[in-house]
Amino acid sequence: LTVGMTSHGEISFQKFAKILNAGLANINFSMHAVRAEDYLVMDLVAQAIEQSRGRSKALVYSEGRLKKKLTNILTANASSVKVKVNTVVRDADTTMAIVKWCEENGISLRLQRDLNNKDASQTIIIEVLRRLGARLVRTNYAVGDSSGAGMLYEYGAGMMITVKYFGQIYIPAMCDDCPLRGKEGCRECFYGLRMEHDKVVTCIDRQDEQTQFTFEQFYDLLSVPGTTPQQVMKQYKSMKVTGH
Question: In this structure, are strands 199-201 and 212-214 parallel, antiparallel, or unpaired?
């Protein structure tokens, strides 16, 4: 087995160095802007700063966050860790700027539809591929894991870019009787585990007491002797998150 992670990467260089040395096989960085003006458009904290303290302060904040992200991506890419950038496509110009930055720095790039605006995002992806003059090389299908599913395109002098699609991946113990399954509210199906602040989150769309756990609770579930992953997943659903 190998262990990887997805992160926005906007943390201090010192903290990131510890992550980089932890033994990860790969890191996927979520990057939706490389210019401060574009970052401001998509970041809620930056927008709040703009409203309360003005645009110049918001741009300073955006530049600082981007500096951490871009430096950490380049540092990781110079190491033995495999690096990929994921970008949610919201407008063509911003996406093209990201494509150019990744080209210049030798970073693999994967485009993703905006799950909150799928049709419009797909139209923009088509426009980006048209601007690049990209041609489809192959389609990858994934069984049991959506992380590898997508369409691989080639453009320019052997440059490659991937368009990701979330597959219909479900974990029976979590998803079989979920009220969101098969409906518009189920955007990603089962994608993976997330660490958000002080919680482990098992579903991005259904964040309730059956899908959110403290680190201690999650560790205890995984530490029960003799349990299979399927049994652990079933314990998620029966567990009452009422503290320790």
Answer: antiparallel
